[in-house]
Design a protein that fits this description.
alpha/beta; eight-stranded mixed β-sheet; binds 5-O-phosphono-beta-D-ribofuranosylamine; single chain; 195 residues; globular; Rossmann fold; 8 strands
């Protein structure tokens, strides 16, 4: 049974989708939900589900390296096989990434390689894209650029705003991430394309 740690910064809707799918599929178990923000709503949701949590406030550390050392210590104590970044909003240093390279996944709300970074939906709308979506990729030293493990796409509607698009893509994320985690946990790293 694969052990999965999930890193969040906010509400944790992706974390919840992953946790529910692991419970339904029995292919993995959540061993930790950690956040860089002690006020992250996802921490309370995880606690309500009986999942061990850790809040490592990045603002309580003098620099990125000391924050990441504290975070990695909590992660390693849970002995995860796989790390899932799910709405985690801190950029990780190469040192941290090397520690978990090959077993750390991230979800990004765009059809990578388009729109790495922030404000993905506004940028897709500004470009007049006919499609938008989300991508799961392995985390490597290059931001939002690791090997793609899955993508899901949907048509952009004429009346879409960044908010309405974000809301529809988020629902797609909740389908894609669990499907990719199932494959990844079974050793299958072939990209999953959902349309
Ligand atoms: C959302 O914007 C989502 O697109 C991205 O992270 C943000 C928060 O997600 N992946 P969550 O509800 O905390 O999972």
């Amino acid at each position: 049974m694969k052990r999965v740690a999930i890193l969040i910064s906010g509400g944790g809707s992706n974390m919840l989708a992953l946790v529910q799918d692991m419970a339904a599929g029995g292919y993995a178990t959540p061993v930790l939900v950690a956040s860089n923000d002690p006020a992250a709503g996802g921490l309370a949701r995880a606690q309500a589900l009986g999942i061990p949590t850790a809040a490592v406030d990045h603002r309580a550390f003098p620099d990125r390296a000391s924050f990441e050392t504290a975070l990695a210590d909590r992660i390693d104590a849970a002995r995860p096989d796989i790390l899932c970044l799910a709405g985690f909003m801190r950029i990780l240093t190469p040192g941290f990434i090397r520690r978990y390279r090959g077993r750390m996944l991230n979800i990004h709300p765009s059809l990578l390689p388009k729109y790495p970074g922030l404000n993905t939906h506004a940028r897709a709308l500004a470009a007049g894209d006919a499609e938008a979506g989300c991508t799961i990729h392995e985390v490597t030293e290059d931001l939002d650029a690791g090997p793609i493990l899955g993508q899901a796409r949907l048509p952009v509607r004429p009346e879409d705003t960044a908010e309405t698009l974000a809301s529809r893509v988020l629902k797609l994320e909740h389908r894609l991430y669990p499907a990719v985690l199932r494959r990844f946990a079974s050793g299958d790293r072939s990209p999953l394309m959902l349309d």
